[in-house]
Write a structure and sequence with these properties.
With about 240 residues, the chain is mainly alpha-helical. About 65% of the residues lie in helices and about 0% in strands. The chain has twelve helices and no strands. It binds iron/sulfur cluster. The site of iron/sulfur cluster has 13 residues, from helix 9 and helix 12.
Length: about 240
């Protein structure tokens, strides 16, 4: 199977079986999504969704966050991972948003990446979810699932992003990001992926290798069994 065929099969399966795929982060506007995505680095969406309602209420606009002190923000984010740096990033992000972008979240990826706490993945999430740009953010789930399925052998998230964007049509890229994240979160988990119930198994290189490995390790046992039966037959 060529990589092109594999992409077509995988994307086709997702289109058929997961017609709706959206971010699980709760937000009401681009600024809130930006805050949530910054907080979600190395943290679960569930935890972020617990933290954000009071945070949004206390700091409803970039100006509120920009004028806050670290000690005012920290208590709201202390239960997420890396709360010290995230509290500092949120304040600095809001200050830059006001200083350089009139308080509006920019749509350009390079502009987004000038904001503190915003790397390429976060910028791509904002660009695709808020502005419907045909880009694919590669996080740990997208990276792992793309490798297992055989969609990419890229060594870095950027390599994987390029492979995915090369093969996935523009109108499906935003959804593909969510497809791969949700698949990685609930089915193709880092430990013990649920291959037995996975609809993508027929095209998955990881699954094929696992099966081949099992077959190889079963062979000697089968041979031993055959020998044993043969021996029994001679008694
Ligand atoms: S078959 Fe297994 S490894 Fe392959 S995508 Fe599905 S869950 Fe992941």
């Amino acid at each position: 199977m060529t990589r092109k065929e594999r992409f077509a099969a995988v994307v086709g399966w997702f289109e058929q079986n997961v017609p709706i795929a959206e971010t699980e982060l709760h937000y009401g506007n681009p600024y809130e999504l930006l805050v949530a995505v910054i907080l979600s680095a190395q943290c679960t969406d569930r935890r972020v969704n617990i933290v954000t309602p009071p945070l949004y209420e206390r700091f409803p606009a970039p100006a509120d966050l920009a004028s806050a002190t670290f000690d005012e923000v920290y208590p709201y984010v202390k239960s997420v991972s890396y709360p010290n740096s995230k509290a500092a990033h949120l304040i600095a992000m809001a200050q830059k948003l006001l200083a350089d972008f009139g308080g509006e979240v920019p749509s350009d990826i390079d502009a987004l990446m000038t904001l503190p706490g915003v790397g390429r993945k976060t910028a791509n999430v904002i660009a695709s979810v808020v502005y419907d740009k045909p880009v694919i953010a590669v996080d740990t789930h997208v990276f792992r699932v793309s490798h297992r399925l055989g969609l990419s052998n890229g060594k870095t998230p950027l390599d994987v992003e390029r492979d995915l964007e090369r093969h996935i049509p523009e109108h499906l890229r935003a959804r593909s990001h969510h497809w791969l994240i949700l698949h990685g979160r609930y089915t193709c988990t880092a430990r013990n992926p649920k291959c037995a119930g996975c609809g993508l198994a027929p095209w998955c290189t990881h699954f094929a290798l696992e099966q081949a490995g099992k077959a190889a390790s079963d062979r000697p046992r089968q041979a031993v069994k055959r020998d044993a039966s043969a021996a029994e037959g001679t008694r």
